């Protein structure tokens, strides 16, 4: 009897071991994600970055530009209907933002709530690169379909306790989808972003198209990147308080766009 128990236990272990060996873990998947982008060395070699293109809210479109520099400096702005929204962070402790679509023309210091996640917003590596050093935690949820692709779902919990999900193509390991929440008028609303049109810049893969909304059938924001510049030189004044803009003419549309989500936020 003992022999039979040992025998069947051995057979069970033989059947189980290949499954365990073949199982993926979140760190293993993220290692493949980083390799698919071009490798950690090339990611770390980027000291500054400028991303420019067009952003669409509903039926209105305008240009945007995001400038980032290590460590955590950011200058972001977009213009819709002759009104320009600006968000700036000095990489240390102070940020400024305006919202001309709500009548706030001057760039005032950011609130504590706005500064809460600003280091993640201004980190163009994204929260998944060196996630442990940043105090973040990752977990593999499983595999599912995203449109016509099999995808790994990774849960990220930031050091601030925020939770969001990243879905990576199971074959290419490029980011397909991001799920999280954004605050609007004091309320948290679900947001989904879809990434496509990958191109190589400086030996690294970048998405050039982002579609965002509350669901696949409710896409309210589209970003089309036209140019990504790696290691440009910036004037340090770009990361200090912006000057007061001239009053623009009144908008012709009732649609008032919300803040431009930081493009690097979803980068793996």
CATH superfamily: Lipoprotein localisation LolA/LolB/LppX
And the CATH topology? Answer: outer membrane lipoprotein receptor (LolB), chain A
**Helical fraction:** 10-25%
Sheet with most strands: strand arrangement: 6-5-4-3-2-1-13-12-11-10-9-8-7
Secondary structure class reads: alpha+beta
The CATH architecture comes to Clam
In total, the number of strands is 13
Roughly what is the average pLDDT, rounded to an integer? Answer: 85
Number of helices: 5
Poorly predicted runs of 5 or more residues? 6-22, 251-256
Silhouette: globular
Strand content: over 45%
CATH class identity:
Mainly Beta
Major sheet, described briefly?
13 strands, antiparallel
Overall number of domains: 1
The succession of helices and strands, N to C, reads HHHEEEEEEHHEEEEEEE
> Distance between the terminal alpha carbons, to the nearest Å?
54 Å
Radius of gyration over alpha carbons? 22 Å
Describe what this molecule looks like in 3D.
By secondary structure, the chain is α+β, with helices and mostly antiparallel strands. The chain has one domain (30-266): outer membrane lipoprotein receptor (LolB), chain A. The protein is built from 5 helices and 13 strands. It has helices at 2-22, 26-37, 40-45, 112-116, 118-121, and strands at residues 48-57, 60-69, 73-80, 83-89, 95-99, 104-109, 137-146, 149-157, 163-169, 175-184, 187-201, 204-215, 218-230. A 13-stranded antiparallel sheet has the order 6-5-4-3-2-1-13-12-11-10-9-8-7, covered by helices on one side. A hairpin with a 5-residue loop joins β9 and β10 (175-184). It is globular and about 50 Å long. Mean pLDDT is 85; it is low at 6-22 and 251-256.
